[in-house]
Amino acid sequence: MESFPDDWSHALAVAAHPDDLEYGVSAAIAAWTAAGRTVTYLLVTRGEAGIATLPPAEAGPAREAEERASAAAVGVHDVRFLDHADGTVVESVALRREIARVVRDVRPDVVVTMNHHERWPGGGGWNSADHRAVGRAAIDAVADAGTRWIFPDDGPAHAVRHVAVAASPAPSHEVDVTGHVERAVASLVCHRRYLEALSDAPVEDQAREVVHAMTGDPAAPRVTFELLS
Length: 229
Prior knowledge:
Elements: E1 2-3, E2 10-15, H1 25-34, E3 38-43, H2 56-73, E4 78-81, H3 93-106, E5 110-114, H4 129-145, E6 162-166, E7 173-176, H5 181-189, H6 192-198, H7 203-215, E8 222-227
């Protein structure tokens, strides 16, 4: 597997929900920010439908706050949210336009998004509708943002250098995250209310188990991506 390109300085990471990026990708983000690169987060929802024991009106603000804290734990301080309803995101021209507007504002070299394929890697289960919709819309929005005659009222066109899909069943590139796994664990721990609703196991144990599973061999941890350009 090839190493992730290093000819860039700013990335925009687009995901459907708070916590999506913390399931492994944040280890790569920690490595990038430690190397002096800048990363911006864009969350399409606030994850308000994600905690069965908490009404959406309470869960949304709680999960937004957790996401801002988890981003800060890996060196990300620009966290933006769109206003789509959790669980019912639709892949649409309107969503593409919103994402393209942020791409043109942030002007990143790299756009990272999450798995848009039907299934998770390794014969995993069916991917959620929100993940599929946001991943596909983000990829298309990159092309939109680079074309001056598409959404011409939403800022000057911007060409993104690389588009990378995290947690893809068809990975092609990897990031060495040696020395950054514990920062990723700390980032996921910030989603305390969410994790407490998932399991009775201690939050720290849940986070460590998930991040270590996503980054592989502790002696040579890696985060993989499907590089589309």
